[in-house]
Structure formats: C-alpha cells, structure tokens
Amino acid sequence: MPGALAEILYLVAAVCFIIGLKRLSSPGTAVNGNRLSAMGMLIAMVVTLVDRGIVTYSVIAAGLVVGSALGLWMARAVKMTAMPQMVALLNGFGGGASLLVGGAEFLKSELIGQNLGLDTSITIQLSLLIGAVTLTGSIVAFAKLQELLPGRPITFPGLQVLNATIFLAIVALSIYQVATPESLLWPFYAVCALALLLGVLLVIPIGGADMPVVISLLNSYSGIAAAMTGFVIRNDVLIISGALVGSSGIILSQIMCRAMNRSLTNVLFGAFGGGAAAVTSGKSAEGLTVRQVSAEDAAVQLGYARSVIVVPGYGLAVAQAQHLVRELADQIEKRGGEVKYAIHPVAGRMPGHMNVLLAEANVPYEKLFDMDAVNGEFDRADVALVIGANDVVNPAARTDSGSPIYGMPILNADHARSVIVLKRGMGSGFAGIENELFYNPRTAMLFGDAKASLGKLVTELKALA
Ligand code: NAP
C-alpha cells in the first residue's frame, strides 16, 4: 500500500476515534459512537496489516482467533459488578503491550547494531517505564478487586521514600542508557525490573474502594505508554489513539475525585477507603433509633405516591436487583405516580455504574437525572426510595466538617416528604461512616437484600386494590 494512502487511512481512523469518543458522552449517541470507534480500529488494523509485513499472516490469524475467543468469553462471563477488575486487567494488557513493543525495538536495534537516535531512545525508555508500571499496577488493582489480595491499603513506613528512590534510579538508568554510545543491556533490564516493582508499590497502598480512580488513572497511563510506543515505531494512529486514551483517563480520574471531594494526590497517597479498617470519623449513632417499615406498609406508601425519586447505589448492583426496580416503577406508574431516577456521579463503584445497571433493565434514559438536574425536585417528591445507596445521600457531607466526605455534593434525599431506605442492615458504605439520614424521623428502613425487598414490594403493589 502506498505510504500516503496509509497515512490518509490512519487519519480517517483517528477522526473515527475522536467523533466516536464525543458521541460516547451522551447515552442517546453512545451506541453509535462505540460502533464508529470500532470501525476506526478496524481501519487502523487492516491498514497496519496490509502496510507492514511484520509477522506472517498465520501468526496474526492465530492471535486474532485466540484473542477474540478470550475477549468474547470474558465479555459474556464477567458480571457487571466485576467490570472494574476486567477493565484493570485490560489496561494491564495495554501497558504490557507497550513494554513488549518498546523492549523489542530496543533489543532489535542492539542485535543489528542500529543507532536509534536520541528521540527514539528517549521514547523507548518512556514506553518501558510507563508500560511496566501500568502492567504490574493493573495486576495488583485486579488482584485487590478480585479479593486475591487484601482490599485494604497495604503500607509500611518509608514506602513513599522507597518509591521516590526507585523512580529516581529509573530516571538515572534511563539517562545513562540513552547517553552511553556502546551497546549495554543491563540498564535496560534494570529499568524494566525496577519499573515493574514500582507499579506494585504504587498501587498496594491504595484502598480497594478507591481502585476505580486508580483504574481510570492506569487506563490513562496505558494510553500514554501506547502514544510513546507510537513514537518509537513511527505509527501516527497509535500516537493519536494513545493520546486520546491518556487524556480521557486523566479527565475521568479528575471527575471522580471532584465528585468524591478528594484530590488525586489524596487518593494516590492517602491510604483511604479500607472497608472495615476505614476512617470512622463522623457522628456516632449512639442513642438514636431507626424506624423500620414492613414491605406491606412501604408498598402502600409507594402505591399512593404521586412522585417517587429512586436513588440507586452500590447495594443495587450487589443485589443485581435492577430488573425489579424497573418492575416496581412500572407498577407505580400504572397507578398514576411519576418515577424518576437520581444518579449521583460516584454512586456504585465505577463511573456510569448506575446508568449501565439501569440500562440493562431497559429503564428509559429520559427518566435518569443527573444530580444537579434532580436535586431541586426532592422538595416536591412524596417518596425518596433509596436502594443500596449510603454515602451519596449522607447529609454529613453538608453539615459535619469532621466527616471524611465533608464537602462532597450529595443527593437531597432528606428533602423529600418521606424516605424509604432498602439495605440489609446498618452497614456503612465505602466511606465507613454513620449516616444520620437513617435516623431521620421521616425515614423508614426496609431491611433485607435489595432484590428480596423489591420482590416483596412488587408483589404487594400488584395486590393493592
Ligand atoms: P455506598 O456508600 O458504598 O453504600 C452501599 C450500601 O449498600 C451499603 O451501606 C450496604 O449496606 C448496602 N448494600 C450492600 N449490599 C446490599 C444488598 N445486597 N442489598 C441491599 N443493600 C446492600 O454506596 P453509594 O451510596 O453508591 O456510594 C458510592 C461510594 O463509593 C461513595 O463513597 C463514592 O465516593 C465511592 N466511590 C465511587 C466510585 C465511582 O466511580 N462510582 C469510585 C470510587 C469510590 P448494608 O451492608 O447494610 O446492606
């Protein structure tokens, strides 16, 4: 294929990525955006295959078959709640690929005695460093979320100093490698080994529940590593797509941090969010009592409500009760009530978690409202139905300056005329703190697994005359 044609087709692929990414930002155009990006990827792959006879086609075909089979199996077998660890693993593969390509280019040049030039030598070092950190960091993130490693922050005195020392050693070795004209292999292997170790040490002190932010950051790293590799092998589409992944990953990490009222530095170095061992500051519930409600009474309340706002949270995903929420909403609407869904930006454990969950149950998108759009409506709502959500409706974020979530914007569920909370017991959420909403006189608790409780509510509502 003529070089100019290949460049033009790479440009077309890059335009598909950019427009596809833009379309992914709205639910209505997301499917189309995904297809467009996939098409861009197909164009990029075909052009690369035809343009460069790098490996034999039989090896490429074998790789395609094995990779597609594995990908298909993973996409079908992995549950929605396990999506974060799957994404972590895929990021790791991206980092690993950059490490391998960067390493192969370096070793090839050593083998044939080729002078790489300063720019290529520097980008090789960068793709080795970022690729290796992404690979092992993502594997640790996967292991934590899969509960193969403890989810709590694992830290020891001097860890940050050790990390800084390793990083400086990598920088020094890389400079030495680039600046030394004679062929040397040991700095190359040392940089790879130290960067792999750094990836582990950077992620182990981060609490399991902070992992979504880390995964988004590692996703960004995998993009930067790919862009560096693009410079190494002089492939424009890899540079552009890597830059897109790198920048969108950083933006996503920032959005998540802002919604949690945390800084990225605090997430990375704060050792926060360790489940049972988490920070437990905040108000104590001593002396306060909760009001319980039966499924029958809650169903009556919902059956006669004119306006209901559903607040889904992490517990809904755990219970996999999304289809029952839809059924419940159908019953309420049949009786003339209006149902809206209030979506907090960090509800659940990954960005868009609730949107994906509710989409699975075919809840219409126009019924899903972002926090800013719906918060004013709670004052007029008859019932706020909180399902498996906790931190995202905790008023301590507004009032308790000592609380770890102080300053985080929350959904105004406590402003509704009445609140019904579905959860299993008095367990805390990700932040590990008490929630005074549960002790509010207007709040009624319906204890039990969300799926079981919603099932009972649907049955009771159907039975209402
Ligand atoms: P949450 O505060 O973690 O609370 C979830 C609640 O669900 C728990 O209190 C638990 O109480 C209940 N639950 C668990 N399993 C259940 C089941 N089977 N049936 C019924 N209830 C169940 O959840 P959230 O309100 O969605 O808040 C998300 C938190 O994650 C925020 O603090 C956010 O900052 C953090 N976070 C989110 C992201 C993101 O990207 N979305 C990223 C990082 C961190 P019981 O044990 O009593 O049932």
What does this structure look like?
This protein has helices at 3-23, 27-51, 57-77, 83-112, 118-145, 159-179, 186-203, 211-232, 236-259, 264-269, 295-303, 314-319, 322-334, 353-360, 371-374, 396-399, 450-463; strands at residues 307-312, 338-343, 368-370, 383-387, 418-423, 443-447. By secondary structure, it is of the alpha/beta class. It folds into 3 domains: 1-77; 79-278, no CATH class; 295-463, TPP-binding domain (Rossmann fold). It has a 6-stranded parallel beta sheet with strand order 3-2-1-4-5-6. Strand 2, helix 14 (353-360) and strand 3 (368-370) form a beta-alpha-beta unit. The N and C termini lie far apart (72 Å). It binds NADP nicotinamide-adenine-dinucleotide phosphate. NADP nicotinamide-adenine-dinucleotide phosphate (NAP) binds next to helix 8, helix 12 and strand 5. The site of NADP nicotinamide-adenine-dinucleotide phosphate has 35 residues, from helix 8, helix 12 and strand 5.
Task: Summarize this structure as a short list of keywords or feature phrases.
465 residues; alpha/beta; Rossmann fold; 17 helices; 6 strands; binds NADP nicotinamide-adenine-dinucleotide phosphate
